[in-house]
Specification:
By secondary structure, the protein is an all-beta fold. It is built from one helix and 40 strands. The protein starts with 18 loop residues before the first strand and ends in a 6-residue tail after the last strand.
């Protein structure tokens, strides 16, 4: 399978001829694509496909003895790319065996979203977010933006197949013909697809390759009112980040600014209820929040107080069966030599926001404060809900808890004020392995075996575990060491970057496929799998 506007074809042929030719086609209609640029990544070779999609290259024949170890002409490029406006850029691709005399490169037609509007203001900006799976969880990430046309219509192109949300960016009415500098201010609040009230409830657009989706939104002119909220303890000359959410639902939309001179949150908002959050950043950070109601006039809010962000201690209990490694790791920080011992040698803990529209978490443990500091601490953790991720180069996390909360199945809730119960981690190393064969693998190809933590299937999203294992051309595979437990083992023809293995509803699509294996520490389970077709 080949796809994408930037599609690579690896030159693995042992053909010693001095020419190469092929055809560029549409991956959906299989029609020839004329005037597509076909080139090598190093730009030594380039040509345009003709009216029938054909392209050809001729290369100098190698001098005697100049062929490489595979007998390939070194004057040939190592890869080819093809692109043309109207087809997706940066799409995924797979290599093609160029032993065939006639090459075929498939380009995926772009997706297109248009939003017709009525009585549009000048310079309305459309923002597009794409649903993207990261570490087994789907999140909404920015996919770009575009300006409205002169006729008020939006057109956003070059979108790969996927699930999208769209909204218009908030803007003020600056029309000199209608604006009264001394009167009421007006603006255009963000408008969400299907006229939702906020990003979390906005409708989604399912876009397939070559599809044009038309989505209607209502852009309405509303009165805007001044907002002024002092921050009582804001540090001087310190940046403050301000976020605005509707009814506590995080996501893009409304915005306010920060006046450093007056140490106050300022801006304009239409009528409604909003949660305002302010946070400082740096070595010592703090966060504050409050809810305001805008109802026909200026909001002179009470002062907001920033509370220190949390520092969370990590306590580790080791239940290893193997002898402890007495070695250490030494590295330099600020011209000082730091030696790591104990769990600091092998363990890292990070926090990932549980809200699918929230971005940013805590990337890991703080650096040692000096020689002899073996403490495990995460600093500057803002209030919120987080999944706790434990990564270790030794053993596995058998239990992760905070008080009575099982953090392998429930998120960690961090409040304001800097006090949070320690995270308690139990580490073990009684692992097992899964190996076996995949049947139905196409000849001369390879695939991947996905091994998913069976506890995912209890119906409760959790931190789970997913291991992707390379399957050899003969169908054999072997997993790395795995914690004891129940696993679902699935065989795919291609890597599954979009597999929501932490979403029980998404994983229901694989019920009855693959095998469920109960792994015991110290044992190896042997399985035989049927390949899941690429269409599934």
């Amino acid at each position: 399978m080949m796809s994408g506007n930037s599609v690579s074809a690896q030159l693995t042929s042992s053909d010693k001829t001095d020419s190469m030719h092929g055809t560029v086609i549409n991956s959906i209609t299989h029609a020839a694509i004329p005037r597509a640029l076909v080139s090598s990544p190093d730009n030594r070779f380039a040509t345009m496909s003709d009216n029938e999609g054909h392209f050809a290259f001729r290369f100098p024949a190698p001098a005697a003895g100049q062929e490489n170890l595979l007998g390939v002409n070194p004057n040939r490029p190592v890869a080819l790319t093809a692109r043309k406006p109207g087809f997706v850029r940066d799409a995924e691709f797979s290599a093609q065996d160029l032993s065939a005399k006639e090459l075929t490169i498939e380009l995926v037609p772009e997706g297109l979203v248009t939003l017709p509007t009525s009585e549009p203001p000048d310079s309305i900006f459309l923002q597009v977010y794409r649903r993207q799976v990261m570490d087994g969880i789907a999140r909404w990430v920015p996919a770009g933006g575009t300006q409205s046309r002169s006729d008020g219509e939006f057109r956003f192109a070059e979108l790969p197949a996927g699930t999208y949300k769209v909204l218009t960016r908030e803007s003020l009415d600056r029309d000199p013909l209608t604006r009264d500098p001394k009167g009421q201010l007006y603006g255009y609040p963000p408008a969400y697809f299907q006229n939702a009230s906020d990003f979390s409830t906005a409708g989604t657009i399912q876009l397939s390759a070559g599809m044009t989706a038309v989505a209607n939104v209502t852009i309405a002119r509303r009165p805007y009112h001044p907002i002024h909220i002092p921050i009582s303890n804001a540090p001087p000359e310190t940046g403050v980040n301000i976020s605005v959410s509707v009814a506590g639902h995080h996501g893009p939309g409304f915005s306010l600014g920060y006046n450093n001179r007056d140490r106050a949150i300022e801006g304009l908002l239409p009528n409604g209820s909003y949660t305002i959050e302010a946070s400082t950043f740096g070595q010592i950070s703090a966060t504050g929040s409050m809810t305001i109601n805008v109802s026909g006039g200026t909001v002179q809010g009470p002062p907001m107080t920033l509370l220190p962000n949390a520092s969370i201690r990590i306590d580790v209990k080791e239940e290893f069966t193997s002898d402890d490694h007495s070695g250490s790791i030494t590295f330099g920080i600020n011209r000082k030599s730091i030696t790591l011992k104990g769990p600091r040698r092998y363990l890292n803990v990070s926090l990932e926001p549980a809200d699918d529209a929230e971005r940013g978490g805590v990337g890991g443990l703080r650096n040692p404060t000096g020689p002899g500091d073996e403490s495990l601490v995460m600093d500057n953790v803002r209030p919120g809900r987080y999944w706790v991720r434990v990564n270790s180069t030794r053993g596995y996390a058998a239990a992760v808890r905070s008080g009575s909360v099982d953090l392998q199945h429930e998120p960690l809730v961090v409040g304001g004020g800097g006090t949070t119960s320690p995270i308690e981690i139990t580490m073990r190393d009684d692992t097992g392995e899964i190996d076996g064969m995949v049947e139905g693998l196409p000849p001369s190809t390879s695939g991947t075996a996905g091994i998913t933590d069976g506890s995912m299937r209890t119906g409760v999203p959790n931190q789970g575990q997913f291991t992707e294992v390379w399957v050899g051309p003969d169908g054999s595979f072997s997993s790395p060491p795995l914690p004891p437990g129940a696993y679902q083992v699935l065989a795919f023809e291609h890597p599954q970057s979009e597999l929501e293995y932490r979403n029980p509803e998404a994983m229901q699509a694989y019920d009855g496929k693959g095998l469920v294996v109960r792994l015991i520490g110290g044992q190896t389970e042997h399985v035989r799998l049927q390949l899941i077709p690429a269409s599934e």
